[in-house]
Amino acid sequence: MKHPAFSVFLVLGLVLVGTMSISAAAPEPMQYAERITIHSDVMDEDRVILISKPAGYDTTTAGYPVLYMTDGGAHLLHTAGTVDFLNRNGRIPQVIIVGVLNTDRTRDLTPTAATITQQDGNEVEFPTSGGADRFLKFISSELMPYVESNYRTVPFRIFAGHSFGGLLSAYTLVSQPDLFNAYIAASPTLGWDDDLILKKAKKLFTDRKELNKTFYMTLGDEPPLQGSYDTFEKFLKKTHAKGFTWGSKQMPAEDHGSVVLRSHYFGLKKIFEDWQIPRDAESGVITGGLEGVKAHFGQLSKKYGYAVTPPEGQINVFGYQALGNGKHAEAIEIFRYNVKLSPLSANPHDSLGEALEADGQLEAARESYARAFEIGGRNKDPNTQVFKTNLDRVTNPGE
């Protein structure tokens, strides 16, 4: 079937945006991801996967949401940086990122066989197009079981794709909505095959009165994609399925290639829009104290469908706020809570030691510093010498 008219520039971009960048394989050894090869019986080929674990993965027992992503070789590194940045600022949880490298990109990311009619009337054919359902079967029946068997995951999955990958993200939402919990579509080719996505979306939202999913789409300065984007956005504004949330963002300063980084940034913020711990606007102090923190993450657990653990770094900041205000007992309570949450991490033990020392409980402080030093050495923590200095200070207070 024919595809609405596109420019030559866009046609080339859709075909090459992933394959050209991915042909230069990620450097070895990779410092930001593990590179694995899975033989797929579904695809009848080997598939290379990049998996990025969050910082501190090996010092906790926690499980993590998983972000599955197309064009993994092109986008995993900057996405890992975005995830880390947003997490350190308390906006999203830590996540495991799974990036799939391409073999036949057009085949895997397009839902049907189609051609593109250019403005001059000539047609561009995609001989291998139409393999999206098979690719999704590979993800659901082979890749997901591998990831969930070999990594600590929780039942919250996100799918992100760009260009044809954005098309696949939207297609998955409207054809297999329960495969993921949330979807990000950067510069999606929503007009593919005579607005196939819009037709399926109309059926989905007619059949489903409740849909607890999040969908986020973006577009740069890309006139050939504008019409189908606007049409789909107009449709989304009329949806009323219970639990369904969506967002969209036009980025006129970005083009088809550069739009991805900001798409993942804003998309992840939308998916986890209520993640940040409430704070007093003037003082910055967390609202409701420690019980407020527990209540907040209890609400997040109900919404996202898994036990959400308060992040170590955010709780530590909260503890130091209390310590800085001279509230030693409150700081000790907060740091003890953090130690309980992250017993295999050195920093909470060290922070508890500081609060105990400030309160004059030197023997208890020494025990906490000793524990921090022991764990830090085992984990090769860069702050291990600081832990040792703190331990020496309370062990030999007169020296």
Automatic annotation (TrEMBL):
Residues 1-25 form the signal peptide. It holds the Pfam family Esterase. Gene3D superfamilies: alpha/beta hydrolase. One of its GO terms (molecular function) is hydrolase activity, acting on ester bonds. Residues 380-399 are annotated as: Disordered. It comes from the Bacteria. Keywords: Hydrolase, Signal. InterPro entries: AB_hydrolase_fold, Esterase-like, Siderophore_Hydrolase_D, TPR-like_helical_dom_sf. PANTHER family: SIDEROPHORE TRIACETYLFUSARININE C ESTERASE (PTHR40841), SIDEROPHORE-DEGRADING ESTERASE (EUROFUNG) (PTHR40841:SF2). Belongs to the esterase D family. This is Esterase. It comes from Candidatus Polarisedimenticola svalbardensis.
